[in-house]
Every structure is written in C-alpha cells, then in structure tokens.
Amino acid sequence: MALGEKVMVRLRMSAHDAHYAGELVDGARMLALFGDLATELLIRLDGDEGLFRAYDSVEFLAPVLAGDYIEAEAELVSIGASSRRMRFEARKVIGAARDPKLAASAATVFDPPIVVCRATGTCVTPKACQRNPLPERDVILTAALVGAEITREQTPHLPITPQEIADEAARCREAGAAVLHLHVRNDDGSPTHRAERFAETLAAVRAKTDCILQVSTGGAIGMTIAQRAEALASNPEMATLNCGTLNFGNDVFVNTRPEIRDLAGRIHESGAIAELECYEVGHVEEALALAAKGTLSAPLHFQFVLGVPGGIGASEANVRYLRSLVPAGATWGVAAVGRHQQPMTELAMRLGGHARVGLEDNIYYEKGILSDGSAPLVRRAADYAQTLGRKVADPARARQLLGLRSV
Ligand code: KMH
Ligand code: ZN
Q: Which pLDDT tens digit goes with each residue over 339-367?
C-alpha cells in the first residue's frame, strides 16, 4: 500500500436503507461506507483496523434513494507517524427511473456518475499496532539545471559556465535537491558533451555541493552514442539511460535497442547507477526486459518523462498506470515538461513517488513568469512535500534509498 492508492466498494441501496420520506437514504449511510473503506486502507497499510479520529469535512451533494447503486472510494493522501489522512467520495452509478411512463422496474445508468457525498478525514493506527513497514516517506528531489535545448534568449536565468552551474547547484541543494541532473554547455551556450567540459563542470559542482551528480547520456538530438557516453568519464554516481526512441517535438530522439544495451553496458562499466528515462509505456517494458536479462541490475530507478510532444501525456491515469508497472524494490519519479511540471510533480509526491524539476524541462515559475533559476522550483516542490508529511531526503539519505555507495 502506498500513498495515493485507492479502495472502492459498490453496492445497491435497498428499501431497508431508506430512512426518510420519499425513499430517501440518510447521509450517515455514506459515512458508514467510508468507515469500511478507511478500515480497508488501514488494514492494507498497517495490518490493523486502526481508529477513525475525525472528519474535517463532509459534504452531502445529491440525494441517495432506495434502488441506487453507490460506488464509494477512499484514497490515502498522507501518512504521519500514526495519522493517516484520507479522501472519500461516493457516487451513484445507477438509479431507478421512477418515471410513471415507464415500467416500475425501469432503471438508468448515470454517465457520468452523480457524486452524492465527499469527505476528508484522519484515521490513526497506534504505533504499537503498526505491523508493516511504512511506504516511502522520504522524497528525493532532482534538479535538472541546464539541459541541451534551453537558450539564454528564452531565459536569462539559464546557467552556462561551470561556475554558473555550480552556483545554481548550490542554491538547488539549499532548496532541497538531493540529485543534480547535468548537461554541460560551451561558453557560448551551445550544447556539448565533451568529457573535458563535464570534468570541469562536475569539479566545480562538487566543490560547492554534496549532491548526487547524475550526468545525461541523452545529450542533445543528433549526438552519437560515443559523444553521449563521454559524460561517463567524469565519474558520476548516476547517469540517465533513455529506454527507447521517440518523436521529440519535431525531432526524433533515437535510442535503438542495441544502442540502449550499449549505453547500459558503458554506464555499468563506469560504476554509475542508471536512471531509466521512460517517455512511453514501451520504454518501461524495455527496461524491465533488460533487467530480466541481467543487463540492468536492481534496484531499478524509473523516471517517467511526461508531456514531451511525441511522448506519453501528463495525466494522473498515465502516472497511475506507469506506476503499476514498477516492480517491488524499484523507485520511480516523474520529470514533466513545461506547464505540466508542477501538477505532475505534486501528483507524483501524493502517490509516493519522487520528482524532478528545473529549467531543463520548464523555464516558468508560473504562467508567463520566468523562474529565477531551478532553485525556486525545487523549493516549491520541497514545500509541497512537507504538506504531505513526506520528508525531503538529503543526499546522504537519497544514496541509501537509491542503493548508492555512501561517500
Ligand atoms: N530533457 C528531458 C525531457 C537525458 O538527459 O538523458 C530528457 C532528459 C534525458 O533529461
Ligand atoms: Zn537531460
């Protein structure tokens, strides 16, 4: 059981449930359903029925009548040391037609379903009753500072020189970043993947932060695999492995299956741990196939890249499906581009995942307002994590969670 998981029940309100005139069912009947759903969430999370402490909001939004089929759902939205905050919704999906022109047995399917009740509340499982390890409470924030596409014309806040990147890295570390995803640039701002430039840039960054340094082997569109692999010479702790080809805007980001295996081997030889960049469902399946063959070693680290024109869309349904493919013991996070970055980052954190923000993927703090570097985006994500009761991991904790050797 992880954050964001849902449980659901569907049942028919009978004549016995009607409590008021007009076959009206009392609202408390919905709360009884919510209590059973809360109990199921607690049993799945803690192995204990726990206690319902309090509702902080209950809204009755439409009448429930005998004969209605009610679908009730509960979602685990945050986990404290013993408190468990949940969100509830009951919807009627079918109801008697109650039309004198039709047979008394006529019934209607409501499409979309009619929401009859919403609530939020907090349950408690005393620590002594908690029988299962808590799911991932720590969240790892990655800052993608530079990328290969953004230009100074698009934003004056783009760091370019090794020192500018190091200074921005320090601000991101201060804001809550544990991992720095790095591309490098020539002094004129053009993208390069030269080993010397990576060595120079990583040395400057290492001098200013203790973050986990993750180099890109994606490089820029059009770079050869050999060029892209030059980043590995700078002894990074992590490196990205792009797990498939895709249309990337109007370009094609080519990662043939032999090239993916080639880069996976080079990353392994360099001693770095791969982060699996997946832009499509098939990319996740490719990574799982490589792991099954032993080309990739556990623990696996998935990064779902969302919203790239040509890649999988940035939606909750897609994130929930992608997450369902992640095997036990693996970590997952999202890197969403542009306007999708903030909502998908927050969704991922609600669902127990990790997140990546930064100018590489999004230059705006909010619509029409450029972000003053990547650090404000990191800070906002860190602040949001706190509201969920999740702890922002520092680099040392992130190394433990990612299975990296401590430094
Ligand atoms: N800029 C992201 C959409 C990589 O550098 O290996 C893709 C990315 C991949 O960051
Ligand atoms: Zn990148």
A: 999 999 999 998 989 999 999 999 999 99
**Block residue for tokens 């980001």:** 253
Q: Is the pLDDT of residue 3 over 80?
A: no
Ligand 1 centroid to residue 218 C-alpha, Å = 6
| Number of residues that this document lists for the chain | 407
The tokens for 77 are 């939205």
90: pLDDT strictly greater than 70 = yes
Residue whose Cα lies nearest atom 4 of ligand 1: it is 218
Q: Which of 148, 155, 141, 140 is nearest to 360 (CA)?
A: 148
Average pLDDT over residues 162-175: 98
Query: For the whole model, what pTM was predicted?
Result: 0.81
pLDDT at 389: 82
Q: Per mean pLDDT, which range of 78-82, 167-171, 227-231, 326-330 is the poorest? A: 78-82
Find the residues whose C-beta lies inside 6 A of ligand 1: 147, 216-218, 240, 242, 277, 305, 308, 337, 360-361
Q: Ligand 1, residues 240, 243, 259: which to mutate, most atoms within 8 A of Cβ?
A: 240
How far does the centroid of ligand 2 lie from the alpha carbon of residue 182, in Å? Answer: 7
| Residue 14 CB neighbours (<10 A) | 11
Atom of ligand 1 nearest to the CA of 360: 1
Distance 217 CA to ligand 1 centre (A): 8
What's the confidence (pLDDT) of residue 1?
A: 64
**pLDDT mean over 114-130:** 96
The string of pLDDT tens digits covering residues 62-76 is 999 999 999 999 999
Rounded to the nearest angstrom, the distance between the alpha carbon of 144 and the centre of ligand 2 is 7
More confidently predicted of 329 and 195: 195
Ligand 1 nearest atom to the CA of residue 277, by list position:
9
Burial of 370 from C-beta contacts in 10 A (0-12 / 13-18 / 19+): middle
Give the CB-side neighbour count of residue 216, counting CA atoms within 13 A: 22
